[in-house]
């Protein structure tokens, strides 16, 4: 049975300029990152201070756009930093991002290289259709690294498999449910574009991600960009 991926119209009503690139890849091998991928990640880290300064990071529109979006739906960005800001701050403090696996490192590379939130979810064992939508508060979330079950606040933007939350606060934290592990053979990769990113920008970066996945993980990849005019796609 075909599973679908959608973004609710309410999200686009609130953020009409938002688009989400979705790269779907199957038949993957997710081992340790090869040396040239790790080298590319280190190069992106080394280049970041030339385009982003930790003292003025909030002035960059690719960072401030997410803070403004979070505030507009009642999320305090100082308490729950958008993933792209959190990752950039680590690099600007001089921390080398750990090499976790090929799939995870590709996401880190693309995020730092473009300052675009990028996150991979394993889709080997999905229970149903998946959706980016506003929470009703009854959904469950088990964050990585703990056995505590949380419930999102009503009105929070969440990424879900039915009522199982895969990511809280839009781009903030991923759950155990769809965590990418060494055994993962199929993923979908989200690339979240708010202005100043355009749909064309996101399409270009999706093509880059698809190429990286096929180069380093094998398998086959395809992508679509979900927008207010194209909010649903076939997943698997």
From TrEMBL:
Question: Domain B3/B4 tRNA-binding, which positions?
Answer: 64-218
Task: Extract the coiled-coil ranges from the record.
Answer: none
InterPro entries in the cross-refs: B3/B4_tRNA-bd (IPR005146), Phe-tRNA_synthase-like_B3/B4 (IPR020825)
Which Pfam families is this protein grouped with? B3_4
Q: Which GO terms describe its molecular function?
A: phenylalanine-tRNA ligase activity; RNA binding
**Name by which UniProt lists this protein:** B3/B4 tRNA-binding domain-containing protein
